[in-house]
Amino acid sequence: MAEVWMGRRTAMGGASKTVAIKLMAAKVAHEPEFRRLFTSEARLSMLLNNSNIVQVFDVGEEQGECYMVMEWVDGLNLSQLCKRLSVAGERLPPVVSVYVIAEVLRALSYAHSVRTDEGSVIVHRDVSPQNVMISTNGEVKIMDFGIARVASEDTSGVHVKGKLRYMPPEQLRGETREPTLDLFAVGAMLHELLD
Questions:
Q1: Architecture of the domain spanning 75-194
Q2: Do domains 2-71 and 75-194 have the same CATH topology?
Q3: What is the distance between the alpha carbons of residues 129 and 193, in angstroms, rounded to a whole number?
Q4: Quick check: 187 pLDDT over 50?
Q5: What confidence score (pLDDT) does residue 128 get?
Q6: For labelling, which of 28, 54, 70, 85 has a CA lying 20 to 30 Å from the CA of 22?
Q7: With contact defined as beta carbons under 8 Å apart, do 133 and 73 qualify?
Q8: At 62, is the secondary structure helix, strand, or coil?
Q9: pLDDT digit string, tens, across residues 105-161
Q10: What is the set of active-site residues?
Q11: How far apart are CA 63 and CA 48, in angstroms?
């Protein structure tokens, strides 16, 4: 649905910062559902200001292309890190796994405490190793609120979004939109890391 590029954000006086620029993929840029998802991700992400969540600095449209300017995380996602370790015949040490999961839980605790203007809770709905970044400094940040929903939004099990292996059965059946969906995913990730 999107491409992410590294860029530089410049400010007055020549100060600059490395950022990630997320562009909606050209093949879906004119599809209303994808534009809605991209806009929804931007809107929800702008509400979140936490050190364990990738920050969104700016959102806009230029010559028909939607973009987000986000915090650049120099590192790998948890899935990439685990694959690299596996190729080397290693795995993430249990103490590091627990640290990563604790940081993800901190991020989700914060996200679940934030209320939209309508008073609704934010639910990520796609917590997975692909959406957990580990920086070279050991920071853990969740990202990609692209399919996030507020708990009050109606969704059905007909159009399931997210990664099946991290979904509770009630999400597959479209029976809940509560933050517990995200907690199930974290439990599945912990099991995967320690198994």
A1: Orthogonal Bundle (1.10)
A2: no
A3: 10
A4: yes
A5: 96
A6: 85
A7: yes
A8: strand
A9: 999 999 999 988 888 888 898 999 999 999 999 999 999 886 666 544 444 444 445
A10: 126
A11: 27
